[in-house]
Design brief:
By secondary structure, this protein is α+β, with helices and mostly antiparallel strands. The protein has one domain: Hypothetical Cytosolic Protein, Chain: A, CATH 3.30.1230.10. The chain is 25% helix and 18% strand. The protein contains 3 helices and 5 strands; from the N terminus they run βββββααα. The longest helix has 11 residues, at 80-90. The chain is globular. Bound molecules: zinc ion. Zinc ion (ZN) is lined by residues 16, 18-19, 21, 55, 60.
Length: 105
C-alpha cells in the first residue's frame, strides 16, 4: 500500500535530511530558518522561510548534522553553539533512541 519511491511534487512527502528517505511530512520534524537568523522547530509547520525536515529520531538528527545536509538545505552555515541549541531543542520533539549528544563532538 505504501510506496516510498522517491517522487517530487508530492504535497505530503518531504525528504528527511538524515536518512534521505521520503516520508509523510506529518511524521517529520520541520526546522525553520527565520529571516532574523534564528533556527527553530516549526511545530505547526506553518512558518515561512526555508525549512528542513528530519525524522523524529536521534540517528537522523545526527546524520543531518554530520553530512552537513542541514546547512545545504538551509543555505547557511551554523555555529557549533547553534547546532547544540538546535539539537537540545530537537530532543523535546524526538523519540530519542540514544540521548547521548556527545557522540557528535
Ligand atoms: Zn530520517
Amino acid at each position: 500500500m505504501l510506496n516510498w519511491k522517491k517522487r517530487k511534487g508530492n504535497n505530503y512527502e518531504r525528504m528527511c535530511l538524515g536518512c534521505r528517505q521520503f516520508r509523510n511530512k506529518n511524521y517529520l520534524v520541520r526546522i525553520a530558518n527565520l529571516k532574523d537568523g534564528r533556527i527553530i522547530i516549526d511545530d505547526a509547520k506553518k512558518l515561512g522561510g526555508r525549512g528542513a525536515y528530519v525524522c523524529p529520531i536521534f540517528d537522523c538528527a545526527i546524520a543531518m548534522v554530520k553530512k552537513r545536509s542541514l546547512f545545504h538545505s538551509l543555505k547557511r552555515n551554523l555555529k557549533l553553539s547553534d547546532i547544540k541549541e538546535l539539537l537540545s531543542e530537537l530532543k523535546n520533539h524526538m523519540l530519542w533512541i540514544s540521548g547521548d549528544l556527545k557522540r557528535l563532538w
